[in-house]
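User: tokens in, sequence out, please.
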């Protein structure tokens, strides 16, 4: 997350957070589907 374009940051963040949320299971709207 250090060198990411502002445009692709959203997409990369979404995929990264979805993976992390799968493990923690704290807040993942996409994971709940």
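Assistant: Sequence out:
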């Amino acid at each position: 997350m250090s060198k990411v374009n502002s445009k692709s940051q959203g997409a990369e963040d979404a995929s990264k957070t979805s993976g992390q949320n799968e493990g923690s299971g704290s807040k993942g709207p996409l994971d709940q589907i």
